[in-house]
Design goal:
The chain has about 90 residues and is mainly α. Helix content is about 80%, strand content about 0%. It is built from 3 helices and no strands. The protein starts with a helix and ends with a helix.
Length: about 90
């Protein structure tokens, strides 16, 4: 249960976040979609590795705390890309 909540759920949320960024920026001549594709190649395995390591090395931490920190870490890159997409037309 700890592995499911602290590793797999943030992984799924991060993949959905990157998919959302790619769908939002598709077909507009935006480079944010290309940036999201290349960033996802690095960020998804890194996030999974960090969350898995934290769930294994920090057994006394509660599952809720691992879930919240894992989700925050997983959503960092998709949210930054959405912010970049929002300010891109003004650049």
């Amino acid at each position: 249960m700890r592995l499911l909540l602290s590793v797999l759920l943030p992984l799924a949320v991060q993949l959905l976040g990157f998919a959302l960024v790619i769908m939002v920026s598709r077909g507009n001549g935006s480079f944010v979609g290309l940036l999201a594709l290349s960033l996802a190649v690095l960020a998804v395995p890194l996030t999974t590795l960090v969350n898995w390591t934290r769930s294994r090395r920090v057994p006394p931490a509660s599952v809720g705390r691992l879930l919240v920190t894992g989700l925050l870490f997983a959503l960092t890159w998709p949210l930054l890309l959405l912010l970049l997409r929002a300010i891109e037309p003004s650049l």
